[in-house]
Amino acid sequence: MLKRRMLVCGAVSSMALPAVTGKAVAKALQKAPAPAATQSYETFLAGVRREAIQKGMNASIVDDALSLTRQPNASVIKADRHQPEFTMTWAKYKDRVITNKKITDGQAAVAKRRSILRAISTEYGVDEAAIAGIWGLESAYGVKTGTYHVIDSLATLAYDGRRSAFFRSELFKALHILNQGDITPAGMLGSYAGAMGQPQFMPSAYERYAASYPAGGRRDIWTNEPDVFASIANYLAKCGWRAGEPWGEAVRVPASLTVGQIGRTVVKPVSYWAGIGVQPVLGGQFGHAAMDGAVICPDGMDGEAYLVYHNFNVIRRYNPSDFYALGVGLLGSAIV
Predict the structure, then answer these.
(1) Which domains are present in the chain?
(2) Distances (CA, A) of 334 to 98, 246, 327
(3) Could you tell me the Gene Ontology terms of the biological process aspect for this record (predicted)?
(4) What pTM does this model have?
(5) Residue 283: partners with Cβ closer than 8 Å, 6 or more residues away
């Protein structure tokens, strides 16, 4: 996904790094220089082990976890240092992530899980389309969750990465998760940057937002779909999702609309937008005239336009990219 920042819902962390997915971490770190290691990897791991045990973690669990990383993972380092730089338009992004196959696969996946999605949507007060849209974009409905051992990835990046302090912190959070018994070291799989399971949570996000469904059990975001859906829903709920409100809709804008009138920060009542000639693409009147919204044109004034509401910004807490939030909204609407 596109660039993310580390967000703690309700406040912005001082570290301008992602909290959720490894792809986003990679994007945020793209231009950071890689430092030279000052100690051997064996010495580094010994220090991690010592500190983890001092923090009260079970020595046997720590040993099992660190046994998965004997030397820096060359594949992780290569992926970290060779991120392609390119500019993608909204039109290209939309064609790339909202394909006919992604829609048909999503419709089939949601149809099989309709009951549990609806139950979790009701419990958390979060639209099931948003849950399904994030599930689809993050892991292709649970199919693509990553094959790297998370401890190996995080230890490699903490040792030889471009933001070693960030990844060292995530490494200890991952060890803490293992110490709690939610997953085994071998089962803790994810992206090369340490994003885990079907929602692609970094360990810090897991500790804050991962949930079990029904409540009270292990939080398994790797293979337990109710836990996956509950975790995504919990994330959005804690970030301020408003039940019963839409994320946004495609609109037509009048030729008189100026650049100064568009953007997420230009929030006006829907009645204002209707009054100056903004119209729903589907025709008719706006169904939420009492709400406030903003007009965004992700490819500029000559491209598509959307009227977006509060819940659009909540989706951006998962990934602060207009493209991503639009993708979640449109995909979710198409498959639920």
Answers:
(1) 248-335 (1.10.530.10)
(2) 9, 14, 10
(3) peptidoglycan catabolic process
(4) 0.90
(5) none
